[in-house]
Design goal:
4 strands, four-stranded parallel beta sheet, single chain, alpha/beta, about 220 residues
Amino acid sequence: MSKIILILTSHIASQSIMKVKEAIEKEKPDCVAVELDINRLMSFQQEGVSNLNAMKRLGITTFLVYWIMKKLQDWLGKKVGILPGSEMITAVRIARQKGIKVALIDQDINITFTKIQKMPLKEKLRLVWFLVKNLTVGLLLSKLGKGEKIDLSKVPPNEIIKQAMNLLKKEFPGLYKILVTDRNIVMSNNIKHISKQFKKIIVVIGAGHYDGMKKLLAK
């Protein structure tokens, strides 16, 4: 039976990069699986499509959801000096340097976008408003030096992650299913598949996927 080690990360936390490096050095796996698909990996390695082309492909409301979420993540990343997703790229780079097999286990990003496009317009508009409101408030509070201080350089405590995921599930159930539930199933199935080939697998995933994937893998 394969040994599967889940490494939980925050996509903008420098601590995540250290966790990935230390885990690979310590465990010496024969496979490193990451929460990426080939399209997202390539987007990190080359310039992405223009906003105009993305808008044509996704439609206005879906593009707004994507653009605001990206801007929010980029803003948080700049606050800690980390390019969002750096821990995933670090895992791929180190694995390749050491001759360790890399597995891309996430769902094709185009499938995810197609599902978001099919969300009810009402939920997408509520999501756009929610993101705009919270991004604006977050920027204002950061300039005023107010609000709860969270160390963005570290992976958030499990309790905060659970609260955030429960909020997403309650307020935007359609989006939660697309971004979390559906992808948990895809990634867990891919891990089960590659576990037939490798004895020890390190799996690098965002912390929000941990509880769901742990239950699926336990089955």
